[in-house]
Structures are given as structure tokens and as C-alpha cells.
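Support request, please re-run this one:
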Amino acid sequence: MGNFTDTNYSTNDTVCLIDHRIHQTWFPVVYVFVFVVGFPANCLSLYYGYLQIKVKNELGIYLCNLTMADLLYIFSLPFWLQYVLQHDNWTYNELMCKICGILLYENIYISIEFLCCISVDRYLAVVHPFRFHKLRTMKAAIFVSVAIWAKEFLTSCFFFEHGEVSKDPENHVVCFEHYPIKPWEHSIHYYRFFAGFLFPIFLLLFSYCRILRVVRKSHGTQLKTKLQIKQLVLSTVIIFLVCFGPYHVLMMVRSLFEKTCVFAATVFNVYHFSLSLTSFNCIADPVLYCFASESTYKDFVTIKNCCLRFSRCSKIDRQESVEMSTPEIVRHSDAQAEKETAVLNKQQARHSLILNSQFYV
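Re-run finished. Output below.
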């Protein structure tokens, strides 16, 4: 393990010699996969978000902003791909390095904040449908979105005022690679962990726990709808933790314990593997949106049914079509349906309307 000092790029800074092979093996696969899958998926999500905005649904504002953050990061992937394929040698200027770095971190924290906005909006819609209706308007969603983008942009400008390129012992120009961690990075990492991850995950968990409690107590909501909501909530939390949790934990580990090149080399692979997981958020967001949107979900069911018919699976197709189009109450006998009507009409007017029209996009 060696140290290196280069006065042209980073004065009086020690740079560690670290094995970057994970960048040439794992990261190209991740970047290509995320670009090929994430670009069309996010374009489709952007279109459906636009349709929601046309019908004055404030969730469309949050979803479009979430998708734009993903697309901006996807546009930077060719630059990162070239960087890792050239053995971590940045061939562009420092300004381009800062722009790509901003897009990387903007995707992480803007995605987190808009996921929280969506969860809080659903919480207000389901738990307090009439009390906070003024907070669930198009104007409020636009104001919150502008505030989030402005906050993250100003934060990035403040954080990235330091030099972001340096030379390693192999004479490669590295971008956003500081090993061991620099003193000025500690405060940035603490802010990102507590304000950018821990507080949002608390909001998200609180909102969805309250939503699940209301759904569980709702007697007028169909069992199928309850199951869909529970699956969506669980998927959102799992994806949030998998995509962003490991990276923030390893970031704090580095901030607390990384003081030598030996420790930096020890955690390098696992830290960068956790960083690569954040890229999969660009794919997870559109997938979640498809399950969160009732109309989009039906579109995918229609496409699936067409494929089944094409492959001569008409019998299966007819079965699934009946299940998707026939409510559970209709499948009861007429006598039983008449007995349940009096009870269902009272609670379904409130619970089903809220859970189907407000929880879903």
C-alpha cells in the first residue's frame, strides 16, 4: 500500500493506492443494465405522470419530479461508464466531474425526498382525508417540488466547492474519489446520513404504518385492494432500504473509522458495491409506480392478456380477465349481497373511495 501527493491536483493531500478492479468488472454491468432498462421505463413513467397532472392529481407532480431526477442521472451514466472502463481515469475537465457528481447525489437525495412526499401525501389522503386537503393541491405540490430542487442544488454547490479531481499513484485523474476520507467530508456525510436518510426513512415508515392501520380497520375495502396496498407499502420500504440503506451505513463507517489507507482499502469494495445499489433506484421507481397506479396496472394486465392470447392461452386469459374486472362482492350470491349492502354502502363510500382514488395514483 502506497501514498501519493500531487501538487497539480490536490496540494498536501495523501492519496491511497487501492485496487479498483470492482469498477472494471461490476460497475460496467450495472451502468449498462440501468441505462438500457431505466431509460425507457422512466420515459413511460414520465408519460403516465403527465397524464395524472392533466387530471389535476397532485401525485403526478411528485412522480414527474422523481422520474426527472432518475433520467438526469441516467444521462450521466455514459460518462461514468467511460470513466470506469478507462481504469478510473477522468478524461474530461473538473467542471464535468462536478456536474456528473451532482447528478449522482441529486438522484439519491431528490429520489428519497420525493418518495417521502408521496408517502406523506398518501398518509394525509388516507388517515386525514378532510383535515389537510389544502396541503394536497397542485399548487402545494409545485411549491414543495421547487423547494426540494432548490435546496438540493444549493446544498450541492456548497458541498462541491472543494476540488473533486486528484491524481492517484498510477497517474490517473480520479473523480469524486478521496481515500482516505478528507476532513471536510465528515460534516457532509453526517448531514447526508441524518437529514438525507434517517429522517426521511422515519417519515416514510410512520406514514405507511398509519396507512396500514387504517386499511386493516377498513371493513368496506375489498380484500384484494387491501392486499395490493400492503404489497405496495412493503415493496416501497424494502426497495428504499436496499437501494439507500447499505450506502449510508458504509458512508458513516468510513466517516467514523477511515483514517489510514489500510482501512480505506479494506472497505473499498463493499462501499462501492453499496454505492452501485443506489443506481437500481432508477429501475425500482418506475416499477413501484406501475403497481401504485391502478390505471397503469390495468394497462400492463391488458398487454399481458394480449400476449397470452397470442400464445394460445385463451383459457387462462379469460380466467384472469374475470378476476381483474369482477369485484369480490359480485361473486357472492344475490341473497348474501342484499344482506351486506346496507353495511357496505356506509363504509364503502368513505373507505373504498379514499383507498382506491387517493392511495393509488
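The chain has two domains: 15-292, 302-359. The longest strand covers residues 10-16.
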